[in-house]
């Protein structure tokens, strides 16, 4: 019994030692930064200083390099700072000379890459005239940037009472950003109405909103042929009785292609390859397929309907379900 207890204690000790080594080894890879603040003429509010037990305007925050969102939440907000006369707070910037690098994940990561040995970062308060508003357009994806200066952000100053349409009239076009292979730009906002709601909630002492580029993966399309089915009057699949042909080939699925790379030639090539494997059923001497049709599935009704087999119909369908990243189109024959 004593041997069992000793063995158990030994196993526990070894396990604890392994955990300690593992945690210790991993901690050295979790880099932390000391953040200092340049208020640029502002000052902390008394309430904020009390909350931080501060006796002066000096504040140092410790952030985790692997936890950007948490670091962002820890940064003081516009309500924590007394603004210079006639000014409102327009965010924290990593640069204080041109104010072209606002605090974003992309700019933060770029800073870490540029200064890999540093453990400090200083951010600078930007102040703008009261009654105005900085709109920060953030390219967001690390593979995209504004090509004229290789920066990740564009900052445009507008009236604090600007409407959504007035703000969007200042938005950079997609042609100003480096393209991302396999992705397409879907705009800066979900909708003008959503932006209008966002603008209406911006407090008078807040001088910044950030709009991030919406990059969406271009859907992948698979073309799948079915020579022995049709759509019945109820919108359901039905097996064709006395079908003139059957498929005599490998399990056939045309290679998946990106939606933006589909052409009329793609559809023709897929059809030709599939039809080369069709064989006559017993009792038939010939057959004619007048055309292939898309069996388009309506996600709202759960039913199918025929649509012409064209590139435009494929694109239109996918645009109707913008959240799709891939989709298989089933093609059905129309026999003469």
Concise synopsis of the structure shown:
With 336 residues, this protein is an alpha+beta fold. The protein is built from 8 helices and 20 strands. It has 3 domains: 100 residues, no CATH class; 86 residues, Sandwich (Immunoglobulin-like); 116 residues, no CATH class.
Give the CA-based shape: elongated
- Count of all domains: 3
Spatial ordering of strands, largest sheet: 16-12-20-18-19
**Number of beta strands:** 20
For the biggest sheet, the summary is: 5 strands, mixed
Number of helices: 8
Structural class: alpha+beta
Q: Tell me the strand percentage band.
A: 25-35%
Which stretches are low in confidence, meaning pLDDT under 50 for 5 or more residues running?
1-6, 8-29
Give the terminus-to-terminus CA distance: 86 Å
SSE map:
Blueprint: H1 2-27, E1 32-38, E2 43-44, H2 46-51, E3 60-64, H3 68-74, E4 81-82, E5 87-93, H4 105-114, E6 120-129, E7 132-138, E8 153-159, H5 164-168, E9 183-185, H6 192-200, E10 208-212, E11 215-217, E12 220-225, E13 229-231, E14 237-239, E15 245-247, E16 254-258, H7 264-275, E17 278-280, E18 289-298, E19 303-308, H8 311-320, E20 326-335
Parallel strand pairs: 1-6, 7-10, 12-20
Antiparallel strand pairs: 1-3, 2-4, 5-6, 7-8, 9-11, 12-16, 13-14, 15-17, 18-19, 18-20
């Amino acid at each position: 019994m004593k041997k069992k207890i000793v063995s158990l204690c030994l196993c526990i000790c070894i396990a604890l030692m392994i955990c300690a080594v593992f945690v210790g080894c991993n901690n050295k890879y979790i880099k932390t930064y000391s953040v200092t603040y340049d208020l640029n003429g502002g000052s902390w509010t008394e309430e904020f200083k009390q909350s931080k037990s501060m006796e002066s305007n000096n504040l140092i925050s410790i952030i985790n390099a692997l936890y950007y969102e948490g670091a962002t939440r820890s940064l003081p907000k516009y309500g924590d700072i007394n603004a210079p006369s006639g000014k409102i707070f327009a965010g924290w910037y990593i640069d204080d000379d041109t104010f072209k690098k606002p605090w974003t994940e992309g700019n933060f990561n770029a800073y870490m890459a540029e200064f890999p040995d540093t453990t400090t970062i200083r951010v600078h308060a930007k102040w703008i005239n009261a009654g105005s508003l900085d709109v920060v357009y953030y390219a967001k994806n690390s593979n995209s940037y504004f090509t004229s200066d290789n920066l990740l952000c564009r900052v445009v100053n507008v009236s604090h009472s600007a409407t959504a349409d007035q703000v969007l009239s200042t938005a950079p076009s997609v042609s100003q950003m480096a393209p991302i292979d396999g992705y397409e730009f879907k705009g800066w906002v979900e909708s003008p109405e959503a932006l209008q709601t966002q603008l209406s909630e911006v407090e008078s002492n807040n001088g910044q909103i950030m709009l991030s580029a919406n990059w969406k993966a271009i859907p992948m399309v698979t073309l799948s042929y079915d020579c022995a089915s049709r759509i019945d009057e109820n919108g359901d699949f039905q097996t064709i009785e006395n079908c003139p042909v059957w498929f005599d080939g490998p399990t056939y699925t045309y290679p998946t292609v990106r939606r933006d790379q589909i052409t009329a030639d793609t559809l023709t090539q897929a059809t030709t390859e599939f039809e080369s494997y069709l064989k006559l059923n017993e009792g038939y001497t010939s057959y004619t397929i007048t055309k292939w049709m898309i069996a388009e599935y309506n996600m709202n009704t759960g039913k199918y309907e025929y649509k012409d087999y064209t590139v435009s119909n494929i694109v239109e369908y996918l645009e109707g379900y913008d959240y799709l990243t891939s989709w298989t189109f089933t093609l059905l024959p129309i026999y003469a």
